[in-house]
Design a protein that fits this description.
heterodimer; A: mainly beta; 6-stranded mixed sheet; 5-stranded mixed sheet; 3 helices; 11 strands; 29% strand; B: alpha/beta; 6-stranded antiparallel sheet; 5-stranded parallel sheet
Amino acid sequence: MGIVSPGFQGRPRSSASDLPPGQYLTEDFPVLSAGPTPRVPLDTWEFVLTSETGAEYRWSWDEMTGLPQDTPTVDLHCVTRWSKLGTTWQGVSLDTLLDGVDTTARYALAHSYGGYTTNLPLDDLRGGRAWVVHTYDGGPLPAEHGGPARLLVPHLYLWKSAKWVHGIRLLVDDRPGFWETAGYHDYGDPWREQRYQGD
Amino acid sequence: MWRVARLAERRVETPTAQTLVLDVPGWPGHLPGQHVDLRLTAEDGYQAARSYSLAGPADGEQIEVTVQRVPDGEVSPYLTDTYAEGDPIEVRGPVGGWFVWRTDETAPVLLVGGGSGVVPLMAMIRARRAAGSRTPFRLVYSVRTPDDVIYADELRRRARDDQGLDVAYVYTRAAPDGWRGEPHRIGLADVNSHGWPPDLEPLCYVCGPTGFVETVADLLVGLGHPTRRVRTERFGPTG
């Protein structure tokens, strides 16, 4: 427990909570990003998976939306401390995309239209825990939330769920991405409060 | 690492915004545009933390944040109404390495702030002055009414004394007497006439509520500014 700030009580709160430490609930959907929102036309959109040997696996919009679809309902936790519970998405599991990809890589670097990157262990993209999603709450994913498609990795802080995702590069060695280079944690587990480097 | 800070001084900026000057022993310094997390702990151990932009450049072991009071907020009303001189608070930071301006940069700078989004931009303006930089700066500050202008006196003074700093206002609800034009939301004409043309390769910093930042960033891209030179910081009503 930290030092007590005299007179601070906080909001009335219930004991039952699905919130990781240091998070508070929000009902709206705040936006965090580093620059302007990219606008990506669907007829030129593609998702490119690149293995550590340079082999490329590409999906167009029609190919991606033609794959088997999941509809995960998940909680979101942003490093800026808001959490949003019970969000519903539709998209393609990374298990589906990685199926048939010949790799021994242990790391992944997601990259986005607009230049954003973020790193994750490849294992965290497997096992039904990560998706490329294109539908939020029953409708097309709005551009300010990463549309037409974003990565969704809800067990990590939300900056790992790269908006406007363009592809994933598989890596033998870990390589920090955009926010990680700017001081944020390499892994980002909300339940362990891994916000910044050194946490 | 959380450091224990104490309130050294409070300045009232507007009816709803105050600047808190904190003594932070061991503060490592920071860049203009970075922010801190402030953490409060209640008697029963409950904690709440929020991020606030640093309002001034590095100055020894003192930092400044400017807090906009959110009526239903959990943290900001405490900071503006209850938190007293000498009281402890926990500080973590500095945080953020992208929305920053370094004083050795020479490219022209466009700052576009909406409401309390002016705070990190003011840190850049103050850092420019403190470093004796002659980098050309333009600030476009969108605000509801003249009474809502944070740092009003200082901005007036700096626009007069700091060579190469231009300040323009966009009023959304009520304009002062003698201001040319009607109150309006920021638009293409404002960004075009008070900004820099893209061929001068300015660095653009946009900070404010989400809708404001979306609008301004889209306008800048539409005017031909490369997306990598448009840096944004957005905030919501998170109190």
